[in-house]
Amino acid sequence: MDRSLESWQKEVIRCIRCGACQNVCPVFKELQAESTVARGRVKLIRGVISKDLDLTDGFIDKMSLCLMCKACVVNCPSGVKVDKLVEAARKEIAEKKGLSPFKNLIFRLVLKNRWVFNTGMRTGRIFQGLVFRKGPNGQGMLPRMSLGIDKRRLLSPLAQKPFKSMYPGVVKVSEATMRVAFFTGCMINYIYTDTGRAVINVLNQNGVEVIIPSLQNCCGTPVRINGDYETAKTMARANIDVFLKEKVDAVVVACGTCGLSLKEEYAELLKDDPNYVEKAKKLGSMVKDFTELVVSLEGFEGKMGRLPVKVTYHDPCHLVRGLKVKEQPRQIIRSIPGVIFEEMTKADTCCGSGGSFSLYHYELSTKINDYKVESVHQTGAEILATGCSACRMHIEDGLNRQGIPMQVMHTAQLLEMAYEAKGLTAEKLMKI
Questions:
Q1: What is the CATH number of domain 300-429?
Q2: Alpha carbon distance 292, 325 (integer Å)
Q3: Can you give the pLDDT at residue 425?
Q4: Which among 231, 222, 233, 216 has a CA at the least distance from the CA of 276?
Q5: Residue ranges per domain, the chain?
Q6: Between 57-64 and 38-49, two packed helices, what is the crossing angle to 10 degrees?
Q7: Domain 5-97 classified CATH 1.10.1060.10?
């Protein structure tokens, strides 16, 4: 089957140029340039397909200025798959122009090879104190020198140990009612191990036995959306083999982007591979976001103590628009005794992270992030819950820039706090 950019000809002509995408695109809101909104990008792609335009530096730049947040996709009256068109354009660019040396190194050597990735992270943990300094109030890290990262960018430190090394391959419970495999993803494994711990603790307390496959690797999303399809396919096949070996009821994820890859993107990516397309579909049918799984567990609410705290929630793009998970996190938060849930305005608007977008386009991403931080701040909440580690890091950066003290955590961590609070005194609660 033809997977070239030309094969998307029928898709580009579906755009009726109505401009609905202008109302929802966070990048267009800032730049106000037709070439940076879905309608304009589709026209540019159509020009390349018809050979009226070349793969110029300007075209490449405009394709990079997409957050892949899917806001235009779900609001398009014609149902144009703009994100897939941009992805196809990036694939064309990668094949015809090649990847940058940095991306080539990261995608084809580091992310693709688990041993190299682990070694790199281990080395990074040792030397991160030399390259970064502590952020305000000891929170996060700021670059000491130019590393291709804006020196104002607050990052979270690498954990002392990878999450997968902290647990046995199977975290057992007595009288298990369910058995699941946990896809950790890169950020939980190497940075936010507290989220991974919360996922395990909450599921264990609900009688769920958790398998953590040691051979799992990056989901491959950064590789795929930057156009390196062959490497992404190799990574997808490896993860499919690892997880389909396990005899489990479900594969649980705690990241919307990882979940979307496993649930839908693998099958699309491998649709021309007769040896893997059905396997990819089978894996996809087993994938559940952590919050989806929890609300399906009978009696999960009865294990909570009282948490007298005000909470708001940010919808990650790939969780709410990709996996269609919206009410489940709110159901969990509202079920916690003592919690006051305050819905922020435009909770499902992109925070500006876009994965590596916030590294390559930091100035633009901070402007988009400022709107999110303002929405968060206006709620008066003490805790912001979310379902994506990349969103967590980017919003923490925005709160830091504006000097707003607030805890940002995964919904799993908030639920873990509620479980830990059961039977505790108010004094001990303050120490959680």
A1: 3.40.50.10700
A2: 7
A3: 42
A4: 233
A5: 5-97, 300-429
A6: 140
A7: yes
